[in-house]
Write a structure and sequence with these properties.
- This protein is α/β, with parallel strands linked by helices.
- The protein has a domain at 2-100 and 353-414 and 431-448: SGNH hydrolase (Rossmann fold), CATH 3.40.50.
- The protein is 63% helix and 8% strand.
- The chain has helices spanning 2-29, 48-56, 76-90, 117-124, 126-144, 148-152, 166-175, 180-193, 196-209, 214-226, 230-243, 248-261, 264-277, 282-295, 298-311, 316-328, 332-348, 352-367, 383-388, 402-412, 431-448, and strands at residues 33-39, 64-70, 94-98, 107-109, 349-351, 371-375, 396-399.
- The chain has a five-stranded parallel beta sheet with strand order 2-1-3-6-7, with helices on both faces. The protein has a two-stranded antiparallel sheet with strand order 4-5.
- Helix 10 packs parallel to helix 12 (248-261), helix 14 (282-295) runs antiparallel to helix 15 (298-311) and helix 16 (316-328) runs antiparallel to helix 17 (332-348).
Length: 452
């Protein structure tokens, strides 16, 4: 074991040295250090547009090239599934990741590590990490040969299960090529991967096989909406309602679609109809609250969000949205109360699937000698990200955006830095917000990786 440990450490040192040499050669021969940015709609077409300029303006003797691999509506599992392909295609020297906000799955109480110093030392050994990596690979291979049906038809869990692949989801179609539900699940899979044309084709096939499948029309509407084809999305949601007038989800999605088109009175009617059909849905009240906030009807927005929170007391996003709203209304003490509650919920409950995906991404990147930069969302605490890697933070650069954005918002207002409230206490950044985010990430890269 001692010899193996020494060998692994020497091999690791050699690999890192070779990787560093390759990086330097890449910089000289191709003129740039390549940085690949991973994430969802808060990344795609957002801060990466400014990151390259922010880095190059620092003139540290290195030319930087930034690759934007953000995918709308994606999840950390989808990013993990695509990672090897992206690495092979783009050959990045550094990977920047800001992700997880779209992940689904159980949020369970965080259990603080109770390992002894001996166990912590054991986990730091290269030998331990090698055996752990091998066991993960073996478990993954075994999982892939499990019952294809049980995996493929867990639609709501697919985003959180890192091992689910396109082949697994397609497997039921080999046995029943005329199965509408199988095409619907395939469409959901593609949608979560951000592959909207393929998702659209799968949903359309499901509709062809079962014209009365209202859920497939809702899925088709998602695809259109994610591709900014709002009139087609509206038609799809309306068709779903025509087929199933009791489909509260279709009304809710239609409400969001109307909101995005600026048809605010229609959106309000759709959300209210959805609530009438499903008064126990906190998500529908959240949509109505966001609509009222967008219209400047802050008191009505607050009431809708409070109803949403009453239905889901452990939703940090609702608490955060109420914190932002109360601050806009000048109710600063109440805003602080909601913000603290949101923070407590985030630190106590977290998505275990997301945490595991983060850890696997780290193992893959560090195994290839690629530096990992983990970025926390604006307004959010870096503490939760660090808890995921507690005792195993080596090789990660953490970028904290909490204080920077909170101070900026306090001075100039929320709307100066964010376009919406989709995540509760933050949303998609304005140009000013993206520039602030890019500048902070650039500072972390130049300081922590290049010591500049």
């Amino acid at each position: 074991m001692v010899l193996l440990e020494l060998t692994l450490r020497l091999a690791g040192f050699t690999m890192l040295a070779i990787q560093e040499f390759r990086n330097q050669q890449s910089m000289k021969s191709k003129g740039a250090c390549r940085i690949m940015c991973l994430g969802e709609s808060t990344t795609r077409g957002q801060y990466p547009r400014w990151l390259e300029d922010e880095l190059n303006q620092r003139q540290i003797g290195i030319q930087f090239s930034v690759i934007d691999q953000g995918v709308d509506a994606t999840t950390s599992a989808a990013i993990l599934n695509q990672l090897e392909t992206d690495l092979e295609k783009y050959q990045p020297d550094i990977v920047v990741a800001m992700m997880g906000i779209n992940d689904y799955g159980p949020h369970l109480p965080y259990e603080a590590p109770t390992a002894s110093k001996y166990k912590l030392f054991l986990r730091s050994l290269k030998t331990y990490k090698l055996f752990r990596l091998l066991s993960l690979r073996i478990a993954t291979k075994l999982d892939k040969i499990k019952d294809y049906y049980s995996l493929a038809f867990r639609a709501k869990e697919i985003p959180a299960v890192a091992i689910v692949t396109e082949d697994i989801v397609k497997k039921p179609l080999e046995f029943h090529p005329g199965n509408s539900d199988a095409y619907y699940e395939l469409g959901c899979y593609y949608d979560k991967q951000g592959k909207f044309p393929q998702a659209q084709e799968a949903f359309q096939k499901a509709i062809e096989l079962e014209p009365g499948n209202s859920d497939a029309y809702v899925g088709l509407g998602w695809c259109y909406e994610n591709q900014s084809q709002l009139s087609q999305a509206q038609e799809a949601f309306q068709k779903a309602i025509e087929l199933d007038p009791g489909n509260s989800g279709a009304y809710s999605e239609l409400g969001w679609c109307y909101k995005h088109q600026g048809k605010l009175s229609h959106a309000e009617k759709a959300f209210k109809k959805a609530i009438a059909l499903d008064p126990a849905s906190s998500g529908i009240y959240y949509g109505l609250g966001c609509l009222y906030e967008h219209q400047g009807k802050l008191h009505q927005a607050k009431e809708a969000l409070k109803k949403a929170m009453a239905l889901n007391l452990e939703n940090d996003r609702l608490c955060a949205a109420l914190a932002v709203l109360c601050e806009k209304m000048g109710e600063l003490e109440l805003a602080q109360e909601y913000a603290q509650k949101a923070e407590v919920l985030r630190l106590h409950y977290y998505n275990h699937f997301t945490a595991n995906n983060f850890r696997q991404i780290k193992e893959i990147l560090l195994g290839k000698g690629i530096r990992l930069v983990l970025v926390q969302y604006p307004m959010r605490s870096i503490a939760l990200l660090k808890k995921v890697f507690q005792g195993n933070e080596t090789g990660i650069v953490f970028v904290d955006n909490e204080r920077l954005f909170k101070e900026a918002v306090k001075q100039e207002g929320y709307s100066a830095y964010f376009k919406d409230l989709f995540a509760g206490d933050f949303g998609h950044c304005t140009d000013k917000g993206n520039q602030l985010l890019a500048g902070n990430i650039a500072n972390g890269i130049t300081k922590e990786i290049f010591n500049k």
